[in-house]
Specification:
By secondary structure, the chain is mainly alpha-helical. 58% of the residues lie in helices and 0% in strands.
């Protein structure tokens, strides 16, 4: 069997590295974010970005105004539909009561009492109606 032996790693001699040359730092660029101090000072309004974004701000304000107007308009329409719906219910109830009154007034007994009270001379018939039958034999004779 082979014998296990520890091999020493070959070490390379360190090469003298050149010292790193530091690059000169750039001047700190102002952050594009808005600080509270700029907002309170009012200096934010003088920046070019604000002037550049002004049309977008106007557009958003216009959309907000339209959104509010639309909500007022929809509430107005809802109030009108509720009013019309309640009026429709009232008319439906009136129709049902008028129909029941008409059915009560148009009964034969009610018509008779109304005519008697008006003294028109029209009276209810006391003779029951009779059926009229047609004689089929006479029809057959007439057709020949």
């Amino acid at each position: 069997m082979a014998k296990n032996e520890y091999k020493t790693p070959e070490i390379e001699e360190p090469v003298a590295e050149e010292p790193k040359v530091r690059k000169p730092k750039k001047a700190k660029v102002q952050r594009s974010g808005i600080s509270l101090r700029r907002v309170f000072d009012g200096t934010i309004l003088t920046r070019d970005n604000v002037v550049r974004l002004f049309p977008l701000g106007l557009y958003l304000a216009f959309l907000i105004v339209i959104y509010i107007a639309n909500s007022y308009y929809s509430e107005k329409i809802i109030r009108k539909t509720t009013k019309v719906r309640n009026e429709l219910k009232e008319l439906d109830y009136e129709y049902i009561s008028s129909k029941s009154d008409l059915m009560h007034i148009s009964k034969q007994s009610e018509v008779a009492t109304h005519l008697d009270s008006l003294q028109t001379g029209v009276k209810e018939s006391v003779v029951p109606p009779i059926k009229i039958f047609e004689n089929k034999q006479t029809e057959n004779n007439n057709k020949k």
